[in-house]
Amino acid sequence: MVESKLNIPPDLALALHGPRRLLQLFPASWKRNYLLRHSGGREDTGRLSLPDQLLAAKRILIVWPERGEDLLMAFPAIESLRRVAGEDAVFAHLAPSELNWLLADFFPAGQILSWTREELAWHEPAVQALVDSLQTFSPEMSINLMDPCPSVLRAAVRASGAQLRLAMESTPTWPYANIRVQTESETPLAGRYFRILDSWRYAGFEPSEQWPVLPLDAEQRQDGEEAWKLSGAAPESTWLFAHDVADVSRTLDDDLYEQVWEQIQSADSGEVSIALALLNAPSQGIGREGRWRDVPLLKASGLLEFSALAGLARGVAAFQGIPLHIASFSDVRCLALLREDETAYDTSAWNKAFTSTSATSRSLEPA
Description:
CATH class of the largest domain: Alpha Beta
Strand order of the largest sheet: 3-2-1-4-5-6
Low-confidence stretches: 1-5
Number of domains: 2
Strand content: 15-25%
Structural class: alpha/beta
Number of helices: 12
Oligomer: single chain
Distance between the termini: 29 Å
Radius of gyration: 22 Å
Order of helices and strands: HHEHEHEHEHEEHHHEHEEHEHEE
């Protein structure tokens, strides 16, 4: 891995500061052995008895993907796993720090641990504190959804002491993983993550592959209704265009309006209008040009708040991104404006309210 402008350390970084930085001078094979020794040695903990150990595993560590969209693709599989694991199962969640806001809404009672690329070196205080927290949690099983997974993070997860270590990686390295999930390369991401449930099927469980709908309490629904009322739009006849403010490749101008409106009209023959929905918009706002200045604007500062807005709309249209997939967990039609190279994010096989547009449409290409 080449060091980037963000000063991200290479994959096999052992130390970034102090005398231990000299460890970086050793060959890659030596550094791999170093991580192996310090995360539990070469000897594994014994033969697997998968059905029995899965039945007994009540402390489970989930290592989430690094991209927010991928995390949302994995969420339905983990929800199914939580149902079959039972109410006495305890989960801890490990994810990049910038995704903690998603996990905090998904699992308000769960333990959430974080890491950053900039500090990902074995002897960094942040990594050693993470290892201490993982060992304190003491999982009986770890499920690593990252593909690929950084070597230092893989070692930290193994150092937790989990007896069962399931990995999604295409080429997981023993002994960091002793259960491997295999899928076809053309399988959509959601389908790949659902394959982790096969181990529980082997153990006699019957997990389902259902697309979840986020539960909202009365206060959250009321807040959503109030936001719609303040916008001046009628939700029952309004499609939300969920714009990802992090997507700098698309400008809210007349060209984009025409592209989105054309796709909505193709999907819905009724008398409908359009409103703009923003998730985690900056406080100074974002630039809107042309017709976008005239459409109603709704803002949400978190996952559940956004889900409440989406769930009241006639439908939600969005390009590939976090807002699209959050909306898919609401009881609402979702029109995914996917390009040809984004079909891995098509969830229509599991979510019947999810429809993707023609992937070859030129209008879906960013500027």
